Amino acid sequence: MSLEVEGLTIEIQGRRVVDGVSFTVPDGARVGLIGESGSGKSLTALAVLGLLPDGASASGSIRWNGRELIGLSDRELARLRGDEIGIVFQEPRTALNPIRTVGRQIAESVRIHEKASKRDAAARAVAEASRVALPDPERIVSRYPHQLSGGQRQRVAIAMALACRPRLLIADEPTTALDVTIQADILRLLLTLVRDDGMSLVFITHDLAVLSQIATHGVVLEDGRVVEDAPVSTLLTAPSSPVTRGLLRDATATLWRPGPGAPGPVGGDPVGGAA
């Protein structure tokens, strides 16, 4: 299955915030949307699942496996969310329900999309918690979000997004709120799961160093427009846009460092080995 975005325009109360964005995500590809805050990358991703904020409207075309998504009812889009397309948000503390156990939240999409019994869905929640390397999954599924660390909450969010084995995962800056060590662990986990399931990935970030770890192709946005669309190796070594050159200068480079022996996207996968 492939995602095709063509001429996407988003307006909020008459103000154009995304202007004619086009890109494709072929089956199994890992594509990054990168840009500074306010560039339109998160709004572009939210438009795919019909999750734009109140007052926002989208035009143009978003096709998933040939099916036009713009104009679908919320009920029709709800059938896709979590089933064919999963999403992981930047801050799991706000994405997770504070008054439900994490196990119940992981199990919810299984019950909705796979019509699983409560007992079977609970067992799946434990299995999914184990799959994302949460410690002592039988115990942790009975806990509430506030009882977990930031990295554990993000693993729960990933388990929720992938429980029904979607064909496309959208990850909206999922490591920004984490420290560098946990950030690297989450990136390796995501890459491993994407590979194992043969999923496509849209990864949103403002950090080119992070992008180099997870994606093989990058779409650079500025003020709601695409300014560069190229392999990540090209963005790192021969950027054509002043925006991309600025992102390269500003890259934290804590996870990717140029030089002999350094991991990087040139000639192979961004992250070397599964975690």
From TrEMBL:
Q: Which Pfam family is an annotated match for this chain, by its short name?
A: ABC_tran
Give the UniProt keywords, A-Z: ATP-binding, Cell membrane, Membrane, Nucleotide-binding, Transport
Q: Where in the cell is it found?
A: Cell membrane
Q: Where is the ABC transporter domain?
A: 3-248
- What membrane topology does the UniProt entry give? Peripheral membrane protein
Q: Where is this region: Disordered?
A: 255-275
InterPro entries (alphabetical): AAA+_ATPase (IPR003593), ABC_Ni/Peptide_Import (IPR050388), ABC_transporter-like_ATP-bd (IPR003439), ABC_transporter-like_CS (IPR017871), P-loop_NTPase (IPR027417)
Where does this protein have compositionally biased stretches of type Gly residues? 264-275
Q: Which domain of life is it from?
A: Bacteria
The protein here is known as ABC transporter ATP-binding protein
Q: Could you tell me which CDD domains the record lists for this protein?
A: ABC_NikE_OppD_transporters
Q: Name one GO molecular function term.
A: ATP binding
Record's SMART domains?
A: AAA
- Organism this protein belongs to: Microbacterium insulae
Family of the protein in this entry? Belongs to the ABC transporter superfamily.
